[in-house]
Write a structure and sequence with these properties.
The chain has helices spanning about 5-25, 80-85, 200-215, 270-275; strands spanning about 50-55, 60-65, 70, 95-100, 115-120, 120-130, 135-140, 140-145, 175, 185, 190-195, 220, 230-235, 240-250, 255, 260-265. The chain has about 280 residues and is of the alpha+beta class. It has 2 domains: about 45-160, no CATH class; about 175-275, no CATH class. The strands form 2 sheets. It has an 8-stranded antiparallel beta sheet, covered by helices on one side. An 8-stranded antiparallel beta sheet has the order 11-10-9-13-14-15-16-12. β6 and β7 (about 135-140) form a beta hairpin. The chain is elongated.
């Protein structure tokens, strides 16, 4: 083989190597991490949230161990609403500007219609951009543009933040005082009923207890003072006795907690589920 041929072969080998290096599918670079509204702030560190709508007093929510409660009225908050509030911190910032480069009055941030305080850090909502419908949101010294699915859920009324459940998630019922003088009390792990029913199964009591622990209202509304038909008392292991005023039983059930200024509207048939023992199931032979 001539030296010229050997040179050509060597050049071809080098070219092949270069082509291999150029076109070989190497490891793709990791996608850039999206910028979020709150940056490195961990939502798990938040234990107080204050929601203020223009023209309304602030609504304060605080974390008691794990569940979130309203400060006033002192009741558990809607879990899904708390999740949405915390999720705002992780919202993707699609476009952002330093605050000192923005004219707040032109985008609704001079007197924002809604502000949310997370511990001591504020997020304030401005107007929507008419071109892309993104919401201006100020957080700290930055103005972000985000997809806003939260602001319409935040009413100015505290009762709209109250959990629809009648009792806290950790409620352990130890006594019930219901209509027709029906009283249930738990002693040494056994339920005692007054007056004692003729035919009775422990499953009936457990179902009635479950109904109180699981029932949710259709809506929570401000209390409207009216005459009470009866008082339903629920005694809890740690929270003491809660009194619900029965203010309407037809067509829907409405029970109220006047001291907290709210009333629960429940579906038709709820009165029986909450005040009567379920029908005794008789096993067929």
């Amino acid at each position: 083989m001539s030296s010229k041929n050997r040179l050509n072969i060597s050049l071809l080998a080098v070219l092949a190597l270069l082509l291999t290096i150029t076109f070989w599918p190497g490891e793709e670079p990791a996608p850039a991490k999206a910028t979020t509204v709150a940056g490195p702030l961990d939502s798990a560190s938040i234990d107080t949230i204050t929601v203020t709508r223009r023209g309304y007093p602030g609504i304060v929510l605080h974390k008691k161990n794990q569940p979130w409660w309203l400060q006033q009225p002192a009741l558990p908050a809607k879990a899904h609403l708390i999740s949405e509030l915390l999720a705002l911190l992780g919202s993707e910032s699609l476009i952002r500007y330093p605050l000192d480069e923005i004219e707040p009055g032109q985008i609704g941030l001079e007197n924002p219609f809604l502000c949310i305080e997370y511990n001591q850090q504020h997020a304030c909502f401005g107007e929507r951009n008419p071109l892309n419908q993104l919401r201006y949101l100020q957080f700290g010294e930055q103005v972000h543009m985000i997809y806003d699915t939260l602001s319409h859920q935040l009413s100015g009324e505290a009762h709209d933040y109250v959990s629809l459940k009648l009792l806290p998630d950790d409620a352990h019922i130890t006594a019930l005082t219901l209509v027709d003088d029906l009283v249930l009390k738990k002693s040494d792990g056994i339920w005692h009923l007054t007056p004692p029913p003729e035919n009775y199964s422990a499953d009936q009591t457990q179902q009635l207890i479950n109904n109180w622990q699981q029932t949710q209202a259709l809506v929570v509304a401000p209390y409207q003072p009216t005459d009470s038909e009866a008082t339903l008392q629920v005694t809890l292991e740690k929270q003491g006795t809660i009194a619900f005023e029965l203010i309407s039983s037809d067509p829907e059930l409405i029970i109220a907690r006047p001291e907290l200024g709210i009333q629960y509207h429940l579906s038709e048939g709820s009165l029986s589920r909450l005040t009567r023992l379920p029908a005794l199931e008789i096993e067929s032979e």
